[in-house]
Specification:
With 473 residues, this protein is mainly beta. Among the domains are: 88-252, YVTN repeat-like/Quinoprotein amine dehydrogenase (Methylamine Dehydrogenase, Chain H); 267-342, no CATH class. Helix content is 4%, strand content 47%. It has two helices and 35 strands. The protein is globular, with a radius of gyration of 22 Å. The two termini are 23 Å apart.
Length: 473
């Protein structure tokens, strides 16, 4: 299954990433962030992990309020195992930011058949913790700025310590590498020169990593998102063999914004695509999708059509990739490597987008909105899989939202897991019907208190958000 953000490829044998000549920076001016409601799902992308098993029950890990982490092994009784209780710290998960809030901001998972999985979590406060299938172990303590882990990449090593690249946010902007050593020491990959320019007042938004084994630094592509909206956005490439950072975007003024970045490494080069949105106040602004083919940048899209900046992509080496992109009026466009083709309109405000590409043929797409209307494009037409009566919650500020994972089956209906981390619910669509696989009325106590406060405020006649969740979708 291809995710919204491209998963980087790495082999079982490792070699130091060959020197790749960085391209001349692509030139445009960057702006403060536009309001983009279509980006909501990406904020919680790591808080649910799924291993599908065809139409049979999948394995699922879900992070709930108060850092509760539950694991479902696919059993017919729908019994879930609590891997972290959210109370008593279970040995590793810490208090974020020096306070009492326990929030998992990033998670990486390796499933282990029917045994307990391996998990790495990044938390508010800068902690990184590892679950080895039995116990939690702290592998990184709070960082100096108390900032959250905003990006996480993991190379698992079974029950042994994994290798980890962690990017930090909230004005810290560090990128640190842990190679699995027993001393739990991390290498700061930020260059010593221009340290403040690279890190201060920035959040590491994306991490694309070429792993070069535990004894060598990885190569990295990252987007540094500024805290101050008038500060330029930076897209960087870190050449590990030269220990040098290269700026791939020449940015200045307040005209454009880098909305999304995807990247992929191979054994000798790397490829990138990024979407660029114009400032909404600029008349006839141009939206772009630019592609780096290993040697130069090419604009694959330049349009005055109002785009969301959200896209799915399948790289094809140095050849043009396949792309699915969305417009602000929820139209869907497909780039077949040569031309842009407008697909039938799904007639919903797309906040979740998953694609299985089919070469130059029309792709298969699952699209969802914030009311959990879910529709599937089978290459010919859109088919409704969920009518959206169950308005699962969505709140990108608190990091709580319904999350969707998809396993495609060509032009046949896909399998889907839909998680509502705020209300402790999860549903599975097996290709023909929905099954409730997690429904716990004993909500995580942090949200339970929030609901009681809301109920007190709106009075007994008000409608609680959870009242819409009494049936399966």
């Amino acid at each position: 299954m291809k995710k919204l953000f491209v998963v980087l490829l790495f082999g079982l044998s490792f070699c130091v990433f060959a020197d790749a000549n960085p391209p001349a920076p692509i030139t445009f001016t960057t702006q403060l962030k536009p309001i983009n409601p279509e980006a909501i799902d990406s904020q919680v992308l790591s808080q649910m992990a799924v291993q599908f098993n065809g139409s049979k029950n999948p394995q699922v890990i879900i992070v709930l309020d108060n850092a509760i982490i539950k694991y479902y092994d696919g059993n017919s009784n729908y019994d879930w195992k609590v891997l972290h209780s959210g109370t008593g710290w279970d040995g590793a998960l810490k208090q974020g930011g020096g306070g009492t809030t326990k929030i998992v901001s990033q998670m990486a998972v390796q499933f282990n058949d029917s045994k307990n999985p391996y998990i790495v979590v990044g938390e508010w406060g800068g902690f990184v913790d590892f679950y080895n299938g039995d116990t939690w172990q702290a592998i990184s303590d709070r960082n100096w700025a108390y900032s959250n882990v905003s990006s996480l990449w993991v190379q698992f090593n079974g029950a042994n310590y994994p290798s980890v690249v962690a990017g930090f946010g909230s004005g810290d902007g560090d990128i640190n590498f842990y190679n699995g050593n027993s001393d739990l020491t991390w290498t700061k990959l930020n260059p010593n020169s221009d340290y403040f320019q690279y890190t201060m007042a920035y959040t590491v938004k994306y991490l694309f990593v070429q792993y070069n084994g535990p004894d060598n630094n990885p190569s990295i592509i990252t987007l540094m998102d500024p805290i101050d909206p008038v500060t330029p956005i930076f897209l960087y490439y870190y050449n590990s063999s030269k220990n040098t950072w290269y700026n791939l975007v020449a940015s200045s003024y307040l005209d454009y914004y880098v909305s999304q970045v995807s990247a992929q490494f191979d054994s000798s080069n790397y490829y990138m695509a990024l979407s660029v949105l114009p400032n909404a106040q600029i008349p006839n602004g141009i939206s772009r999708i630019a592609f780096f083919n290993g040697s130069k940048w090419n604009n694959l899209q330049e349009t005055q059509t109002s785009m969301t900046g959200k896209f799915d992509i399948q790289f094809n080496g140095s050849k043009n990739p396949y792309i699915v992109a969305t417009t602000t009026d929820s139209k869907v466009q497909f780039f077949d490597g040569d031309n842009w083709i407008e697909l039938p309109n799904p007639n919903l405000t797309i906040t979740k987008l998953y694609t299985q590409f089919n070469g130059t043929n029309k792709p298969y797409i699952v699209a969802g909105d914030n009311s959990n209307v879910i529709r599937f494009f089978n290459g010919q037409q859109w088919v409704e899989l969920c009518s959206g009566e169950k308005a699962l919650t969505s709140n990108m500020i608190s990091g709580k939202s319904s999350i969707m994972r998809v396993n495609f089956n060509g032009d046949k209906n896909p399998c889907i897991v839909l998680g509502d981390i705020q209300n402790d619910n999860a549903f599975f669509f097996n290709g023909s019907s929905w099954v409730s696989i997690l429904k716990n009325t004993d909500l995580a106590k942090e949200h339970k208190a929030e609901q009681q406060l809301e109920k007190d405020e709106i009075g007994a006649s008000g409608v609680m958000e959870n009242d819409t969740l009494q049936e399966t979708p």
